[in-house]
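Researcher: Predict the fold of Endoplasmic reticulum-Golgi intermediate compartment protein.
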Amino acid sequence: MAGLRSFDAFPKTDETHVRKSSKGGISSLVTYLFLLFIAWTEFGSFFGGYIDEHYEVDDQMRETFQINMDMYIKTPCKYLDVNIRDKTMDRKLVSKELNLEDMPFFIPYGTSVVNEMKEIVTPDLDSVLGNAIPAQFRQKMDAKDMFEEEEGINFNGCHVFGSILANRVAGELQITAKGYGYADFIRTPPEEMDFAHVINEFSYGEFYPYINNPLDGTAKFNIEQPRTSYVYDTAVVPTVYEKLGAKVDTNQYAVSEYHYNAEMQQMKGPVRFPGIFLRYDFEPLSIHINDVRLSFLQFVVRLVAILSFVVYTASWAFRLLDLALLNCFGPRWSLRYQSDSKSQGILDKDPFTK
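Model: Structure tokens for Endoplasmic reticulum-Golgi intermediate compartment protein follow.
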């Protein structure tokens, strides 16, 4: 091997004149560990993908949309009217399309928010896809048949539930007492009007009962003023979730709420009637939430580029740091310095030592 080294076009420094530094080895070890960490994170992003969220102008033409609701209202069903009125002044009586069941009014245990707006939490992609199980409301049943008359149960409430179609323009779902707001042969006695209510479900689009919405599980009541009116303003945003071929087309909405006492209103303004009013409008944008995955070729190119950049940056950082230490504190502080008597050459040794 010694004879072959004599023909080396780029001869290396003799090993007896080289000082090996442990500091350089530590920096190399740290660099390699960091490279392994980068590679591990890149492999995780390749197999797990990443979530891409973007807005688009909603270019789909829809003539109608679906409203899903499940509510308890503290007014007997025979005195309730449910209408939809949109900005084209088109009115639709939807009481017959919904299921109205007499019930003793109560606020279910576990109702998350009473007389307050609950905190709105945007669900993640996996949660939506896991809960996107379409369903339908059950058929109407007469709850009075389940109880005997002598039990004395007061059926002072109404269970309103079902899905209805409406024109896809801004409008309002109106739940009022008969004889108030619209002409009717029946006029509700004032003592029977109480619009305390519980919203178990309120959503737009296809009915997914397991997806949580801002109004789900909320309740409102006013014992001192039972004829209080409640107004909800909702802004609907079409939202599409996609992952691994699965697609869920639904709607999110933001909501604001206020209430007023219809008996205390001033006659100067427009006439207001007791009731529950759910207004809706549609945003011109839609949200697309996709699970995106890189191709294998893109992954390899990305990984090689990142690792090469890290190695190049680490090498220059090592050189600059070593140069700074050498100029500021002397050669003993150099990252390449290592005091080792075994690395001395023949001329440096003491001739009187064996």
